[in-house]
Sequence to fold (92 residues):
Amino acid sequence: MKITKPYLLCIVCLAMSGLVWAHSEQDIKLTEVPAKVIHAAQEAKPGIEMEEAKRIDGEDRIFYELEGNLRDIDYEFLITEDGQLIEMEEDD
Fold:
């Protein structure tokens, strides 16, 4: 995963706001990601092929970070466990 400055800035801002404060982060299988989370990413980018997933246990919430590809463009999503899209980033 390529981490860009805007992505880092977003994570820092989210952490400072208390929305995300990672107690743990782990790679998981795509089959372990809740359907609502996958649906949120697919709704944001119809036709995207998911490739990787992480579960982030925050202080008060669980988040999922998904990575996928559509037409040779990589995308990263940060989505709550109930399917709310927090951020989508296009990776060049």
